[in-house]
Amino acid sequence: METKSQEGHRKRLRERFNQSGLAAFLDYEIVELLLTLGTPRKDCKPQAKEAIKRFKTLRGVLEAPPEELQKIKGITAHNIFVIFDYLYHSMRDLKKEVFKVMFLDSQNRVVEIEDLFEGTLNASAIYPREIIQGAVKHNAAALIFVHNHPAGNPQPSDNDKQITQDLVYAANIMLIKVLDHIIIGENRYFSFADAGLIEEYNSDFLSLKEGKRA
To answer: What is the Cβ-side half-sphere exposure of residue 108, based on CA atoms within 13 angstroms?
Structure first.
């Protein structure tokens, strides 16, 4: 279980990243930050330091084969940081918004990544039905959403929050987990899971469900 000290450390890492990007980070801290995307409730510093020790540099870690990374205790196949570098570099300079969906199996292993929507995102442009149909097609047990903010600021808009809540509700109806929604900006990102919003939306859905039963 994560201690208050570990939780505070993770929060400070995110604040530093949002204020100054990656320039203010040591290599192992960047790896630690990326690892937290896959394990948002776990202290990842030991794994990050071991990864840098074993692969020498940040680039060495990012380019290491997944099977070699998994030899480090605590790094498993479902750590999504091994594809975060690809997502970040492929999306940070896009001139328009792109909404990707990552479909995962019951072991949280990535089955498929699809671009489902392009252009300015709003609630009327994101169709939960299409995402759920994709989940059924890929026999997915969990989902991660990723989209970019071309202006550079990854902070979610009210519309981003509404879309995410709608998707969490739709997934809950189909007994599918939403693990995170990541917004990529310029040298920064925002994680709905890290911010506690995914947990909040799940709780809201359960409250509504229980209220209908009452």
So the answer is: 15
Residue 135, pLDDT score: 93
pLDDT score, position 24: 67
Pick the closest to residue 164 from 192, 129, 125 (CA basis): 192
Q: Are the beta carbons of 166 and 129 closer than 8 angstroms?
A: no
* Final residue before a domain boundary, out of 25, 46, 79: 79
Kindly give the parts of the chain with pLDDT less than 70.
Answer: 1-8, 10, 17-24, 37-42, 77-82, 84-86, 121-126, 212-214
**Pair (184, 102) in one structural domain:** yes
Are 115 and 192 in the same domain?
yes
Question: What are the two backbone dihedrals, phi and then psi, of residue 118, each rounded to the nearest 5 degrees?
Answer: -135, 155
pLDDT at 37: 62
Domain of 93, in residue numbers: 82-214
Q: Are 163 and 121 in contact (CB under 8 A)?
A: yes
* Unique residue bearing structure tokens 């937290």: 36
Ordered strands of the 142-148 beta sheet: 110-118, 98-104, 142-148, 177-184, 189-191
Quote the Cα angle for 120-145-23, to 5°.
Answer: 85
